[in-house]
Amino acid sequence: MNLENWLEHLPATPEPTLSESLRSWEITNPLSGASATSPPIKQRPDTEFEDTTSLLSDSSISDCTDIQSDACSTSYQNSPQDTPVRDIFNQLRVAKPPILCQPQAIGPVPNGVLSMRKCLTDGFGQRIIPRGLESRIRKSDPVAAEEIPQTAYDDGTHMSDADLEGLWSDLESIRLEARYCDMYEKDENAWGLDVVQPILQSALKGTRKLQVTNVQSQQIDPLLLPVLNGSSPRIGKKADYAFSFACRDHEVHNLYQRVSLGGHGYQISHTTDAFTKRTILFSGLEVNADDGGKKAALAQLSLWLTANLEQIQRLGKFVKGGSSVSFEELTLPTVGYTVIGHDWYTYIAYRMGSESHVVGPITSVLADTRSTYGILKVCDLMSRTKTYATEVFWPWIRDEILQPLAMHPSLDE
What we know:
InterPro entries: PDDEXK_12 (IPR046797). The protein is α/β, with parallel strands linked by helices.
């Protein structure tokens, strides 16, 4: 049994449910332009930041440059108070629509957010290690083995020696690749290819509906980005990976085809990529090397997640015909991750009125790839994300957004 098969036998996570929203709100974003053709994206220059002091009109946070921690430390080391990474969250807070990034939610939150948190956190890290691996773990890392709680071991699953060996081989491969990336100062591409992708692929084993999509080179539709007053640094790259609902699944494929024929056209995601814009995306992961900037990664992830929420909200408003509807009838929360070397940080993004909120990191699900136990916790977290995406998010967006779009008259009529 390999890592993928073991994940399928993990204890079932609490079944998440859709709930009534705590308050109703008014949509202030016009639908105009939601499906319009995106303007060309300017080629990213070699410099890390673009001087926008000459801009006199409102500007959207577009796809011109990257924010990187090393650039900040080099270009602004003499005046840290002016560092764009530090200031970008203040800019997002007053953008239109505003994006609020905070460690904890302030005020009431939608019930859907509480349901998602429950799905991610209840029993996290428990019964994820087959008892048959205990001796191998103690031999490989006796010090770390002493720190593993007994609740992490699973006595209920009996695996053959061959299955245990296959699972152990997969775990050791990931652990060693993460160790080498750390020891030899490999870049974020190595972390993504050698560590992150194997974990994501393992977590999605057994489902045809969801797949890992590399979105490193893809741009967000500028119409979905927040607008800033005056000049500001611009953020470029948004995320490295996302989960997409796959065309290889018969139900998903047929629904995509019906939506394209129903009049709305192909663009149902928040990207401008020729293929990805035709698919529904969920979540996002931003990967940085071990010395990468945590705040820079969060800024990029926040734009990715909130643009997705903005697109779904606009689609929901379109199919509802502009009627007064509650929050959870228009969008559900989503979850995203920043991966800084070994460490995986979890954030939940949701809409509340005209504001987008990004809350985290969620401390109860912190995980890393420094040890076998840590890797299994990361796999547990990704497995829970898959469960939420396929059992809650997909049924909702299928019934509330995609099926009505498939029957909606053409926008040109």
